[in-house]
Design brief:
The chain is α+β, with helices and mostly antiparallel strands. The chain folds into 2 domains: 178 residues, Galactose-binding domain-like (Jelly Rolls); 329 residues, Glycosyltransferase. It contains 14 helices and 20 strands. The strands form 5 sheets. Strands 1, 2, 3, 6, 7, 8, 9 and 11 form an 8-stranded antiparallel beta sheet that branches. α3 packs parallel to α5. The longest helix has 25 residues. It is globular. The protein starts with 12 loop residues before the first strand and ends with a strand. Keywords: Signal. InterPro entries: 6-hairpin_glycosidase_sf, 6hp_glycosidase-like_sf, Bac_rhamnosid6H, Bac_rhamnosid_C. Pfam families: Bac_rhamnosid6H, Bac_rhamnosid_C. It comes from Luteolibacter yonseiensis. This is Alpha-L-rhamnosidase.
């Protein structure tokens, strides 16, 4: 696997099974996992409780990954009441292995383990400022064997606190390591430019989504280890830009379809059933699998017909269920209607195109007529960026006017890590790449400035005032960037610090700065229209079913852009 730069220092080593057949009795009941394991060694000891902890730095030394009779260095000793916090250097999804040495008394002490996406999260009890065990246990007490290995997890974490939970016996640990599990797939797409901060953001967005490519495409690796259809859209855009085709996408689309009768909304949210349609068109354009699209026809047709019943005679959307765009606009009914009006129009127009591809003229005509009726209704403006961006993308309002009046107002404020992707897309549509680059650098880069190695469920630049970094204990007088903020379902430590919907800038940089966009199914034809904005140069690769497209764009002395493009066989560039 090609490791992206933010992971290089984490020192992964692959755990690979030998290439041989399983015994017949096992093969009958076993199914090969799509996931691969990588060992991650601890990088730092962040904190120790003082005299109750001995030799914690020995955990950072190389170890065999096997309990042995004689350890080469003294083990970590945690006395009753003592505790230590270690940092693995990067956010991962997986488990931890604890190795115990030989001791004369064969004691089996208990340890309390607290996983954390921040150091502060390892320091709190369940129920304190949102700390929880939802979806995956991150706070539990386990017994340790004599001379053995104990695996605890899975969860999403970067930090681990180990407390001696035994009132009488010392805890001795010869080795502690993390085990990352994810799909071992190559980073076919790449991005480099003259701004190193943007390069790091591209890498981090790609890795954020990669961590969520588990058995299914999750939204979060600590909390929200679930398939959420709307949240998938930015993730799928990133996967198309970085990995190309991956089975996790159709597997997740199909699973959600199969558990959701067409009389209900996916995930209980009306817009999420619309995102299912929009993702299918984007996925077909990227990969060109007509047979797979045909498998969706019955459900797709029924869903489009149901959606069409939620448009009144005046063209106003009347969707029921949970009416949702993103969390910051959730309680603003005007904003939600704005966004849903735009989404319904985009969905009907997408549905018309898909129905035409599938040879269904009746459904295509229904979608076209419904979209025309939707365009007759101009929703009231809330002044919020998320719905304004959708209206711009859908063509309800002139893009440059939306950018000037709403999107650029107050800089990168009123953004969410989810719908920030569509704000960026609307800025690109208005031709304002520099503002998009600045928003990415300030907003997503703001998370990196405070120690993030993945992008978060939500973020507000105002949170960073008087706040400390997430990779250190909170200093006196400083705000806790994790525990003191959040809203709705992600208050305090329930807040996920690795959320796939936050990876949008990766796809945006590949599609807009590198300028690569498929215009025929399977990327048989692509349009390459780079926009460097303030950048001096940019280069990278973009995956297609025929191989990677290679591009380099460089600003010349006269301000023009010189591009070098290498296309794989079977891919045609169109102007």
């Amino acid at each position: 696997m090609k490791l992206i730069p933010c992971l290089a220092a984490a020192a992964f080593s692959a755990a690979v099974l030998p290439c041989r057949a399983l015994p017949a009795a096992v093969a009958e009941v076993a199914e090969k996992s799509a996931l691969t394991s990588f060992v991650v060694r601890p990088k730092h000891v962040v904190w120790a409780s003082g005299a109750g902890v001995e030799d914690p730095e020995n955990l950072l030394k190389p170890h065999s990954g096997q309990a042995v009779l004689v350890e080469p260095v003294p083990p970590l000793v945690v006395k009753p009441g003592g505790a230590v916090v270690i940092d693995f250097g990067v956010e991962i999804v997986g488990s931890v292995d604890l190795f115990t040495p030989q001791t004369p008394g064969k004691d089996m002490p208990s340890v309390r383990l607290r996983f954390g996406e921040s150091v502060a999260e390892t320091m709190v009890d369940i129920g304190e400022r949102g700390a929880q065990n939802d979806h995956a246990l991150r706070d539990q007490v386990v017994k340790l064997p004599w001379l053995g290995k104990t695996t605890v997890g899975p969860s999403g974490f970067r930090f681990l606190r180990i407390d001696n939970a035994d009132p009488k016996t010392d805890v001795r640990l010869s080795q502690v390591r993390a085990v990352l599990t994810l799909r071992d797939v190559p980073y076919v797409g790449s991005f480099k430019c003259s701004d190193e901060r943007l390069n790091r953001i591209w890498d981090t967005g790609a890795y954020t989504v990669h961590l969520n490519m588990q058995d299914y495409l999750w939204d979060g690796i600590k909390r929200d280890r679930l398939v959420w259809l709307g949240d998938m859209h930015p993730e799928v855009s990133v996967i198309s830009s970085v990995f190309g085709y991956n089975e996790v996408v159709p597997k997740s689309l199909d699973m959600t379809r199969d558990v959701t009768p067409v009389t209900e909304w996916m995930n209980g949210i009306s817009s999420y059933s619309m995102w299912w349609i929009l993702i299918h068109e984007e996925w077909y354009l990227q990969n060109g699998n007509l047979d797979y699209l045909k498998q969706q026809q019955a459900y797709l047709t029924a869903l489009l017909k149901r959606l069409a019943t939620h448009v009144d005679a005046d063209g106003r959307e009347t969707l029921d269920g949970m009416r949702f765009l993103d969390w910051p606009t959730f309680e603003n009914k005007t904003a939600v209607h704005e966004g849903l009006q735009a989404m319904m129009t985009l969905t009907m127009e997408s549905g018309a195109r898909l129905a035409e591809i599938l040879g269904d003229r009746e459904t295509a005509e229904l979608c076209t007529e419904t979209a025309a009726r939707l365009r007759r209704h101009q929703p009231e403006s809330s002044g919020r960026k998320s719905p304004a961006a959708l209206l711009s993308i859908a063509g309800f309002r002139e893009p440059s006017e939306v950018s000037d009046a709403v999107l650029k107002k107050d800089g990168p404020r009123d953004l969410s890590t989810f719908y920030g992707f569509y704000v960026l897309n609307a800025l690109a549509k208005s031709g304002d790449i520099d503002t998009g680059l600045d928003f990415i650098s300030q907003y997503w880069g703001g998370m990196l400035d405070f120690g993030a190695t993945t992008f978060w469920e939500d973020f507000d630049l105002d949170w960073t005032k008087d706040a400390g970094p997430i990779d250190q204990p909170v200093a006196p007088g400083k705000k806790d960037l994790h525990g003191d903020f959040g809203a709705h379902c992600y208050v305090g430590f329930r807040h996920s610090f690795c959320h796939g919907w936050a990876g949008g800038p990766t796809a945006w940089l590949s599609r807009n700065v590198l300028g690569v966009a498929p215009v025929a199914p399977g990327c048989a034809k692509v349009r390459i229209t780079p926009d460097l904005g303030r950048l001096k140069w940019a280069e990278g690769t973009y995956p297609t079913p025929k191989g990677a497209i290679h591009v380099r764009h460089e600003r010349q002395a006269d301000g023009t852009i010189k591009s070098v493009v290498k296309l794989p066989d079977g891919v045609e560039e169109v102007k």
